[in-house]
Amino acid sequence: MIQTGKKIRSIAAALLLCAACFTACKESSREQGISYWLTTPDRSALFAKQPATLPFRDTANNYPTITVDTAQTYQEIDGFGYALTGGSATLINSLPPAEQDALLKELFLAGDNGIGVSYLRVTIGASDLSDTTFTYDEMPAGQTDESLAHFSLEREQKDLLPVLKKIVALSPSIKILGSPWTAPTWMKTNRAFKGGSLEPAYYSAYAQYFVKYIQAMQQDGITIDAITPQNEPLHGGNVPSMVMQPEEQADFIANHLGPAFKAAGLKTKIIIYDHNADRPDYPITVLDDAGARPYIDGSAFHLYGGDITALTAVHNAYPDKHIYFTEQWVGAPGVFSTNLQWHVSTLIIGATRNWSRNVLEWNLAADPSYNPHTAGGCTACVGALTIGDSVTRNVAYYIIAHASKFVRPGSVRIASNVPGKLNNVAFKAPDGKKVLIVVNDGKTPQTFNIRFNGEVATTALDTGAVATYVWK
């Protein structure tokens, strides 16, 4: 009886403590209210902090209600950001030092004047948004280099590495994903930058190419958190590009890339696929390979085809493997309002509601003529920044800012319902703050409630407008 009495008193004390914590949390939310940042389709507000704080109240009304619930959690978030292409690095590095430093602080710090970009994708060798095609081990026609004696990052010493070093100095924990558009041409079936496939005879050499890349970047102070074996492996029409079928990718990882990383002691993640959501069978096929699967961290997606819900289908097939969203472009000339609404609704909200740990826009910077790019590469890719005589912030800057500033790495997605056309996603940040991103996908302005801990705050959004709401 004495032990039972102690247990009862312990349970009662725990319940009182929980009640006290709940009350304290409720009081904190009530006292602090909700701060929010707004972007409107007419650009009258561009990720602008609103002067009013929305108070939580006990009173009820008949407006649609988004209920945020911290008790139900989903995936952890790695970050939000852009592709830092070779062309982007060249443009940023061309800015005067003081202007460049101010821009990098604005992009990569999350303080009062920064948007806190926390994830970057870089290209291993050239992408189509480089000024020319290259890899880190090209050889004269008819020659090979299986020992990779000629491997060199010299091409990146001019722009990419200096910019990356400054970024890492500002944000030491930033995650960097490396993706190749092609293997060295001497490894390919057609010996060309465009199209072709990786010769099986060079699978081991190509695996060592990745090892050398990761080690060389590390020597320059750049940690590569993850790689994908091939950008858009089913698209052989870009310049550069390379086709890699799912069975080929599984073989390459299982028998060459995975063992090479293990032998070298590399912790860099291997993320598969890196292509459109219309082919969820591709990553599932690779993950079905028992030899490849242990080396794979997860699958990456773009959305130039298919539906964002395909990410959940792959998650459900292998729930222990992570999901990433690694590329989506804004095409020139583009309509700000249309792109703002679609990208936030479909990617910032849609991808994370379908298990993605990140969202990356393509790409960080271009000049006013959408240069640089390769001959045959993208001629109409709008950067998040246009860098010419001045720096202009475009729609992708604001799309990412609405998430990156507040949904910091280590945040966890939490439950929220979607009433009507008020598409949204909610997170709990590492500091305990709640973050709710909402877009009004309806055709009319909408007044609505945000409910948390039994109280509501009332707000409104014009059609197509985006807001990020933050509270304790």
Automatic annotation (TrEMBL):
InterPro entries: GH (IPR017853), GH30_C (IPR033452), Glyco_hydro_30 (IPR001139), Glyco_hydro_30_TIM-barrel (IPR033453), Glyco_hydro_b (IPR013780). Residues 77-407 form the Glycosyl hydrolase family 30 TIM-barrel domain. One of its GO terms (cellular component) is membrane. GO terms for molecular function: glucosylceramidase activity. Residues 410-469 form the Glycosyl hydrolase family 30 beta sandwich domain. It comes from the Bacteria. SUPFAM superfamilies: (Trans)glycosidases. One of its GO terms (biological process) is glucosylceramide catabolic process. Keywords: Glycosidase, Hydrolase, Signal. Residues 1-24 form the signal peptide. PANTHER family: GLUCOSYLCERAMIDASE, LYSOSOMAL ACID GLUCOSYLCERAMIDASE. Belongs to the glycosyl hydrolase 30 family. This is Glucosylceramidase.
